[in-house]
Amino acid sequence: MTEEEPILFFRELKEPGNVKIFATLKDALDLVAKNKKPYLRLVLVDPYNKELYVQIWGDNEIYAPVNMFLRKNLLHLNGPIHLIDLSYDGEYVGSSMKTKIDTIPTQHPVYAKYIALNNYRLLKTIPEDPKILGEIHKLMNTKPLIEAILARLKDEGLAITEELFWEITKIICDKTYTGTVHLIAGKPQLAITPQYSDYVLKQLEILMIAFARDIANDRVAPIILLRRLQKDLVSLYDFTEFQNK
Questions:
Q1: Which of 19, 146, 160, 221 has the fewest CB atoms within 10 Å distance of its CB?
Q2: How many helices (H) and strands (E) does the chain have?
Q3: Can you give the pLDDT at residue 5?
Q4: Helix or strand holding residue 237 (H, E)
């Protein structure tokens, strides 16, 4: 996302300063501060369904009681809102003296991305975008890691049943998919690196030690091992984010 584009994900609020936010307006409330001055509390929602409270103080030119505020800014609840020059102090978001509101957010270049993200948040609708579908297809590149796990289990004396094959494929697909939200936001499907493959196989080896006596002789033990592996594996996305810090 460029500096000119507004924030779509609230976790991007990291450094204090002035920010632009493009989100869903979940609610708007008329409130009164301890000093008896009225203000608006806007409840915003991002693509992860995370809520953010934004205070529009009474001394700002865009302030108005809720009904008037919605009407004059052409807003409706559960619709898009684009706020410009909000003040973020590292904890709270509120209006500054420069705060403005975009009365036609549908004309902003980020609107199409917002709609795709919102549709995915609400209905898990995958965009019929050739670029995104191409990124999803890259999951076919998980086959070498799946085959490596199967080979290691076979070396341990396990018969590779359809049940085991499905379990392993599910784990690797779930853990290596970058995520539809990230793909819509413009990030690519991450490639499985040698470091991540080594990490997965090392986790498998450790669990195989725990189940060594039962792994080849007990029908349930391999499934328990794989369920535990699924719980203990960090996703490729989080693994990559951690390495890049």
A1: 160
A2: 9, 5
A3: 87
A4: helix 236-244
Task: Measure the N-to-C terminal CA separation of the chain; round to a whole number of Å.
Answer: 18
The rounded distance, in Å, linking the Cα atoms of 224 and 235 is 19
The structure tokens 């008329």 sit at: 30
Interacting residues of 229 by C-beta distance below 8 A, sequence separation 6+: 171, 203, 204, 207
Q: Please give the DSSP secondary-structure letter assigned to residue 189.
A: P
CA distances 9 to 20, 110, 146, Å, are: 11, 13, 33
pLDDT in tens, 163-193: 999 999 999 999 999 999 999 999 999 999 9
Write down the H helix ranges in 15-142: 66-72, 111-123, 130-137
Q: Which residues pair with 25 in a beta bridge?
A: 44, 79
Contact in structure between 192 and 142 (CB atoms under 8 Å): yes
Only one residue has tokens 């509390």, namely 41
Contact criterion met (CB below 8 Å) for 49 and 121? yes
Give percent of the chain above pLDDT 90.
85
**Rounded to an integer, what distance in angstroms lies between the CA atom of residue 176 and that of residue 31?**
45
The token duo for 171 is 């784990």
Residue 212: pLDDT band (50, 70, 90) is: confident
C-alpha span between 175 and 47 (Å, rounded):
20
Euclidean distance between CA atoms 133 and 129, whole angstroms: 6
DSSP 186: T
Among residues 28, 37, 17, the alpha carbon closest in space to that of 86 is found at 17
Nearest CA among 76, 96, 72, 75 for reference residue 84 = 96
